[in-house]
Amino acid sequence: MSELLKINNIETYIGQYHILQGVTLEVKKGEVTVLLGRNGAGKTTTLRTIMGLNPASKGSIVFKGEEIQSLPTYTIAQKGIGYVPEDQGIFAGLTVEENMKVAIQKENEETHKRLDYILNLFPDLKKFWKKPGGLLSGGQKQMLSIARAYVNDNQLLLIDEPSKGLAPIVVEKVMESILQMKDQTTIVLVEQNFMMASTIGDCFYIIDDGRTVSTGPMKQLKEDEEMKRKYLGIA
Amino acid sequence: MELLFNLTLNGLATGMLIFLLAAGLTLIFGLMDVLNFAHGGLFAWGAYSGIWIYTTTGSFLFGIIGAILTGFLLGIITEKWIIKPVYGNHVQQILITLGLMLVLSEMLKVIWGPNQLTANPPEYLRGSWEIGDMIIIKYRVFIIVVGLLVFAGVQFLLKNTKIGLVVRAGVMNKEMVQALGINIKKVFMFVFMIGSGMAALGGVLFGPYSGVIHAGMGMEFAILAFIVVVIGGMGNFTGSVMAAILVGLSGSFMAYFVPELSLAVNMLLMAVVLIVKPQGLFGGKG
Fold it and tell me: How far is A91 from chain B (nearest CA, A)?
């Protein structure tokens, strides 16, 4: 499979803090790449750097063969990268319908097909179509956030901790839907829930202290108890 | 009864003028996090340019259109060359917009002279209607109607168009709007332009309402507009119209019954709101 995204040794500062100090990764088309690591390791910042929300000060980010690290966020999104932030980024005062309308970049037949697909995947969104986003449950907000990222013809989705703060049964639902979407798009997933990450992921990268320290197929990590203990705190 | 009716009508008309100024201010603050102290200057420029066009052409409608276009133009210039370099820095914003306010006021004196200008309503808006004992001044009704139409128009824009949705979304979460592929800077300019146009419209309507316009009027009204923005909730468009009506009515009634307290009561109202409900009577951004 060919590379869709290639990050080469990026460094990112947030204010005076040197958060990313050398993150390198490759995302293959059609795969789910999972970023793992302890809290504060730099996983979220990696996604935000890809989106241009915390621009890289060094290194390169190549998406579909084009360097994007110096582009503004909206241009990066227009190039085909959808982003589901950790806090879901729902527009609380807008209805589910309005949240989707803001997200749709080009309204055409293809978009309508994608919208139908996502509403079938998340029937709750259809049910609460006219309800303000702020009144949805945590799981429904997560679904809405994923739906907004998916509705455009994005070749890559960056999903940040979709299981955070959700009840186990909702996590299962979100996980199932990401598994279904896996056939349609490429995903970079940040996830603390190792069970979910290992079920969905094809390959992994471990980030520690702002650096990528290990990578490989997910199967390999599942069997490596020492690495899980050392970097993920899983006994 | 007649007195109460007239005070109410007067308060509503003043409230609508304040709303035209405050609405732009609150949207600009809500979306762009910019404290624009020069906004009153656009109100004054709307008054001068509009009244000048009105007296030159004899058409009040041309005056209104001219004032709005002046507001749009000054809004674009202000956003592009003055506000843009200081996004994210409130101290610099306050200093630069206060400076701009002074420049805008002084420029009026340079162009139209230091003396105040007189302005009368057009023929068709002069006079009053008499219903029973009540006398209804036509021009006040006109201002109320225009204010309500603008409110309805902006509400329609915000609720039923893509750009309006983006503005509302941007008020809530700018970063996410950009992550969805929308150039927020273009939206900023659009909002600044609309807000400036509304302020300029308020200015030109104010001319015949008060009978005279002067270069310092922008600052006077800007204080009321800031009070309204705080009371209504910073960034809350619907709150701004409600608060403007409240301030207009309280000003009108207090000016008649306790004139020495008419501005103080609004300040007091703002202070109470800040203590009791700091996010404003109608909530925060929304």
Answer: 6
Q: How far away is chain A from the Cα of B267, in angstroms, using its nearest Cα?
A: 30
Sign of the CA dihedral B86, B92, B93, B95? negative
- The domain that contains A39 carries what CATH number? 3.40.50.300
Alpha carbons A87 and A96: distance in angstroms, whole number: 16
Cross-chain CB nearest to A148 (options B178, B180, B285)? B180
Domain that holds residue A179: 3-232
Residues of B in contact with A152 (CB under 8 A): 181
For residue B282, give the DSSP letter.
T
To the nearest whole Å, the CA of B208 is away from the closest chain A CA by 39
Place of tokens 């790449």: A33
ipTM of the complex: 0.92
The CATH number of the structural domain formed by B2-276 is 1.10.3470
Number of folded domains in chain A?
Answer: 1
Q: Locate tokens 């996004």: which residue?
A: B87
Note down pLDDT in tens along chain B; length 286 residues: 788 888 999 999 999 999 999 988 988 888 788 888 999 999 999 999 999 999 999 999 999 999 999 999 999 999 999 998 998 888 999 999 999 999 999 999 999 999 999 999 999 999 999 888 888 999 999 999 999 999 999 999 999 999 999 999 998 899 999 999 999 999 989 999 999 999 999 999 999 999 999 999 998 888 889 999 999 988 888 899 999 999 999 989 998 998 888 778 888 989 998 999 888 888 765 5
C-alpha to C-alpha distance for B229 and B23, rounded to whole angstroms? 8
- Chain A: residue whose CA lies nearest to B286: A93
